[in-house]
Fold this protein.
Amino acid sequence: MPKTLKEVYAPYFTVGAAVSAWWLDEAAEVVKANFDTVTCENEMKYLSIHPHGYQPPENVNRFNRGEDEYRPEITDRESLIHPTLVVDTSGADKIANFARENGLKIRGHNLAWHASYPWGVFEQLSPSELRSNLDEHFKLMAEKYGDCYCWDVVNEALNDRLDGGDLRDNVFHKKLGDDYLFELHGLARKYFPNSELCLNDYSEFRPDKRDRIIRTAMALKERGLVDVIGLQCHTNIGILRHGFGEVRRSLDMYAKTGLKLHVTEMDVCCIEWKKDPKPATPEMTAQVAEVYERFFEIFKEYSEFIENITLWGVSNKHSWLNHMGPKECHGTNKPLLFDDNYQATESLERLLQMV
Ligand code: GLA
């Protein structure tokens, strides 16, 4: 039998995949054979666990929650202050139980994220009401999923605008102040004493963002509140043109923090976001395989510091890039390691052959 992904990379790091409850059954065998860890794609996010309602208005950027002025009337304040009054853990339970039954470790994703809470609602809570919400939510997640070996605490906490401070001005920052990240990592430490705590963000190889991530991670580290830096690694074929210099430079700098590194959400889009909108061609998808190979060569060099590499999905057909990503290549993007029939893609073949 040829070796599978997790077997091939076992000397270097563990490998994982994000999975969704609605397609887990059909992917189960491939996941068990190829991966050591799983992440819930959406099922552990606040809005999945507490389905309060409060849909976003049309024509707003779903990822910039809170930056618009939409403020729905709150009709169930009590269940926002006490989020355990509205709970649905069926999706997260399905994935967690699958992992437990099959000896896979779980990366907890995530305890707080500016893009996953009821639209326009946390903005209307007082700081103490929001604190009560977060405390109760973290506590529930610890009761249910305290066995996750690592948790992304505040997802994407860093500011990615050129101006402003290091922290994103999300609703938690606005309401709880400049020390909110210390506060929420402290809360996570209290409720998850056996889990690694991770600072997970994107654009991690862009110099200005990288510097912000490192400054923030070091401030958390001084207080004993972080163990892992999470590098999302949503990348695209444009990196073949730009080169991998910043990737290496960044990994050198991240390694020097003394924190563990996780690659948390890797996929390779076959176009450059916003620059090059067109359907994917075979030439472009061949470049995807090359990007994987170049990245994994570098990851192997830094394997002393890298604990886990997680892919953001299993089969191309379910990748968010074929549904929510750039419209022009919906259905033709091949950002992952398995095709629509769960057969190895060229990218996976290359990764298996290079070790
Ligand atoms: C972000 C989040 C993930 C996922 C991806 C892609 O990176 O951290 O949970 O939503 O976007 O959709």
Notes: The beta strands are 14-19, 37-40, 105-113, 150-155, 196-201, 228-231, 234-236, 260-269, 306-311. The chain has 13 helices and nine strands. The first helix runs from residue 5 to 9.
